Amino acid sequence: MTQIAYDDTPLIIAGKEYHSRLLVGSGKYRDLEETRLATEASGAEIITVAVRRSNIGQNPDEPNLLDAIPANKYTILPNTAACYTAEDAVRTCRLARELLDGHNLVKLEVLGDEKTLFPDVRQTLKAAEILIKDGFNVMVYTSDDLIIARELESMGCVAVMPLAAPIGSGLGIRNPHNLQFIIDELKVPVLVDAGVGTASDAAVAMELGCDGILMNSAIAAARNPVLMASAMKKAVEAGREAFLAGRMPRKRYASASSPLEGLVA
Question: Which residues of the chain have pLDDT under 70?
């Protein structure tokens, strides 16, 4: 099968190159074996771990998530899920760094509402400032607000991760225009975080020009998580290729696929 050659730049986060633009979570699976199989099928290299909900060594008598997603095979991305204050988020990141032998790459999320799981932007900014000064490389979950995204970038966050829809909702890309503003202006990687429900959602986000996508529920809550993980891998790749290829212009009227000149009468 002939491979189509095209130029692309690698995804670079905190100075490290990644081949996959799909990042996946490690929660909500039936067991660690399903976690392992779905992660492998996704092709992801960066795996998020909710430090406050998962055992990564703090409970030695319980199954360790890192047995399914070993740190020598994946980049583990501790996240601050279930934190509602800057102080809790900072404390969680410091615990993760201790458990992971000085690991500094973290995903910051500070929630402001239990029903929508929307971010508390003020607390997020506060936590990001503390963590960056403390030597962390911060990937940050935020609203799809260009002004806040700019501020997070200027503070030194290594990636900005606007939501596409509420966490775990599966509603898809609800406001592509806001995402496009952020993608067009920021220099650091922009990754959609939250809202993807199926493969077509992932492709749409990548076609907009997102540098990558983080998802968990869309895979783990599928009837067949391993198969969905494989589908998401392909969708992210297809969306990226479509973005690089450049879509045809939208037109108001039809345009024949074959030229009209030279028709036989």
Answer: 1-3, 258-265
Residues tagged active-site: 107
CB 143 within 8 A of CB 125: no
- Find all residues with CB under 8 Å of 11, minimum gap 6, and list them: 17, 18, 19, 20, 21, 189, 211, 212
CA 252 to chain centre: 35
Q: How many CA atoms lie within 13 A of 113 on its CB side?
A: 9
Amino acid identity at 17: E
User: How high is the pLDDT of residue 228?
Assistant: 98
Three-state SS at 161: strand
157's CB contacts (< 8 A; 6+ apart) are 108, 128, 132, 138, 139, 140, 188
Record the pTM: 0.92
Q: Which residue has tokens 């997020």?
A: 124
pLDDT digits over 62-90, tens only? 888 999 999 999 999 999 999 999 999 99
Nearest to 144 by CA among 107, 110, 181, 112: 181
Closest to 242 in 3D by CA, of 205, 197, 217? 205
What lies within 8 Å, CB to CB, of 240 at 6+ separation is 8, 21, 206
